[in-house]
Amino acid sequence: MRAAPDDIPTERLTGALRRASVKKNVAAIHVSGKLTLLQRKLSNVLLLNAYDTLISQPRHQIDARTLCLMIGYNSNDVATLRDALRGLAETVAEWDMLDDKGRQEWGVSSLLSYAKLKGGICEYAYSPALAEKLHDPRVFALINLNIQRRFSSGHGLALYENCYRFVRTGSTGWWPLDLFRRLMGVDGSAYYETFKHLNAKVIKPAVEEVNRTSNIEITPEFAKKGRTITDIRFRIRENKQLAMFEIDDDAALRGGEVYARLQALGVSDRLARQWISEHGEAAIAEKLDYVAGQAGVRSPVGYLRAALEGGYEVPATEPSAEALAAAAAREEARRRAEAEEAAREAERRSRRARFAAVEAAVSRRNPTQRDADRRLFLSRIASDFDREEFRRHGWASTLNARAIFAFWEEMEPGIFDDLAEGQG
Q: How far is CA 192 from CA 157, 174, 217, 293, in A?
């Protein structure tokens, strides 16, 4: 859609951000687009992990193996994880907005102020100024990790991130092409200075992947000065069709009794899932029973947090025969639950590791080969529903997981042989 230069609104994302809605800080922290797909996914997981304590704690920690599993990455390759963390520490985040009093504020910070790996734990921190901006939900929208795993290109995920935070306003506002190139990580390339190349190799493929893969649909619009395209914006709306194909890995977890008890106690969805993942349902159920039996507790959630994160043990009492029998029954139930959960977790690890191997294999193919691979795979799918799901989600299609793994085992025999034991 063409727009005359006079039609360009005043809410440009450079210079003074003058529109009233900008005072609500809808605009923008811009992160350099020169991140690999792995680095971009890693950045989102780190932010999600730290979000609840982003302002209150200067440092954050996450188990390195858990971190790798959440981004679908082989946790044995420590060197690549180090490189990805180093890249985040070297990446610049920049903001330019108006504060609540209408004063312009510009700032710049490294995306991570530091990161370290020690004893299987990843510790990291944000600068105080950046943490304040990232914690404001009006400025930065947390990315759904189930959605980000479906992206197979860095440009697609970068465009999704930069559009998703504007979903409530319905438009990104106008971006000068120089800013857009920087967001996509192609600034400094003479090839992409030509709009024809930028449109064909970056804009169109990224828009197609966002619309096929994510929970939003975007439409690019361009503004010209004379015959030259100078600015771009994206109209945004929710993808109503995504719910037909949505598969949430946390659905089973959210349906459990322990999750329901945590929610009833007032624990947030994010924290409940984090605790269950870290401590297991049996341990949390035990602590919940203990907290429930304590009189006069003013903050049950705080008490439970201390019991879990402080490693407090439930005090022992002289047991009766009935109590011993009940304890034995609970222990047997706990062991069964742990065995079932271990089996489910092993399956999840296996699937994530295989999808990561497929993603790596696809990245090694040239565009012609990738197109041929997709056509060949589609020709083998009999179900219209499964074909549509693959068209939307590509090689990250969870509904077609078994077929995808079989296809790539045929294409590259032994592709999954080097995966770590327990990961597939």
A: 19, 19, 24, 65
3-state secondary structure of 116: strand
Q: What predicted TM-score, i.e. pTM, was given to this entire model?
A: 0.43
Query: How far does CA 353 lie from the centroid of its chain?
Result: 17
pLDDT for position 15: 28
Burial of 390 from C-beta contacts in 10 A (0-12 / 13-18 / 19+): buried
Q: How many residues does the chain have?
A: 424
- What is the torsional sign of CA 13, 15, 18, 23? positive
Angle at 179 between CA 177 and CA 184, to 5 degrees: 90
The DSSP call for residue 21 is: G
Helix (H) or strand (E) holding 232, with range, is strand 228-238
231 touches 174 (CB < 8 A): yes
Q: In what order do the strands lie in the sheet with 104-110?
A: 29-31, 92-98, 104-110
Contact assessment for residue 139 and residue 13, using Cβ atoms and an 8 Å cutoff: no
Q: May I ask the CATH architecture of the domain 2-244?
A: Orthogonal Bundle (1.10)
Q: Where are the domains of the chain?
A: 2-244, 251-345, 348-411
Q: Which residue has the higher pLDDT, 77 or 202?
A: 202
CA 30 to centroid of chain Cα atoms: 17
What does the alpha-carbon distance between residue 400 and residue 386 come to, in Å, rounded to a whole number? 7
Confidence of residue 197 (pLDDT cuts 50, 70, 90): very high
Handedness of CA 36, 243, 399, 70 (dihedral sign): positive
Residue 393 to residue 148: CA distance in whole angstroms: 11
Using alpha carbons, select from 211, 196, 127 the residue that is nearest to residue 164.
211
Residue 231: the pLDDT is 95
Which residue's entry shows tokens 């044995």? 76
Cβ–Cβ contacts within 10 Å for residue 227, how many?
5
